Amino acid sequence: MLGRVQQRDDSLVARLPNSEAHAELTMSPDKNNPKRLSAEQVLALRGLRLPGTALKQLQETAIYCEPSVSIEHQHLAQKYVIRGVESGGGVAELGHYVGFVDAHGRSLPWLQRVHSVGRNGLHAIVVASQVVRLQMFRRGQTYDLLVTQHHLESVQKGRRPTLQNKIIFRGIHGTLALDLWREDSHFSGQVTPAFMTRSGEPLLIPEMLLEAVCRITSAASCVGCCHCHLLRPDSHPPVISTTGEKNGDPKISDGCS
User: The pTM is what?
Assistant: First the structure.
């Protein structure tokens, strides 16, 4: 069975209750134990929890992915932002990738491009007041996908804000009967895995996320990845020279050649 070019559907299927976090100690619905997180809250904050065998395979194949997000303070602008790192890649047998878009599923500009020594590692850093994180893990032609939304919520003026986390979509054991890393590479960026509910009904990806999911599907199948699939260059990034003058951004080649 081939994966699907999803039908258009605005409803956020697989939407789960909101999760709240400043740090893990403040995220808990358990009144008897305020320091304990629910499984859904941990998932929304940390991302997919991969089994030990999968983590071992990723380490052996040198695929490094960093799904964590953090609150950072910009001293000059006097504001807090969320920081994330687009990272990952794949080999023929498996892939793991994390990327970010805005609340409407559109590409965000990266803050800083990262050129790692190896491949399938860090690609770019993003900072924003809110982000949508996409994380995909692939085993052959089977895919797991988690999409979470993160934004800052002020507690009190002058105090560090809390990080609010929400699961938008979660699909496990999705199938895509294409080898995007080999002879079917011409489909990259055009298809997504087909996900099902536990009862066997189609689990549709929200329309606003379709393009981003197509891109991260391609990213998790990108062998020896060394470029960004979701973040993009800033249209007019300032570059400060040693004389203090702002220059145009140099052209960057993102091909994995």
Answer: 0.80
Show the CA angle centred on residue 170, arms to residues 43 and 1, nearest 5°: 145
**Whole-angstrom Cα distance, residue 13 to residue 252?**
38
More confident residue, 189 or 12: 189
Q: Residue 198, Cβ neighbours under 10 Å: how many?
A: 7
Strand partners, 196: 202
Q: Backbone dihedral region of 6: left (phi > 0), alpha (psi from -120 to 50 degrees) or beta?
A: beta
Is residue 8, in this structure, part of any structural domain at all?
Answer: no
Round to whole Å and give the CA distance between 138 and 35: 33
Structural domain includes residue 41: yes
CA distance 138 to 83: 25
Quote the domain boundaries for residue 104: 18-233
Q: Rounded CA gap, 139 and 174, in Å? A: 10
Distance CA 130, CA 151 (A): 4
Number of residues assigned to the chain: 257
DSSP E strands, the chain = 18-21, 70-74, 79-90, 94-101, 112-113, 122-128, 130-139, 142-153, 162-175, 239-240, 246-247
Q: What are 45-55's pLDDT values in tens digits?
A: 999 999 999 99
C-alpha 144: how far from its chain's center? 12
* Residue 106 belongs to a domain: yes
Query: Is residue 253, in this structure, part of any structural domain at all?
Result: no
Q: What is the domain count for the chain?
A: 1
DSSP secondary-structure letter at 104? Answer: T
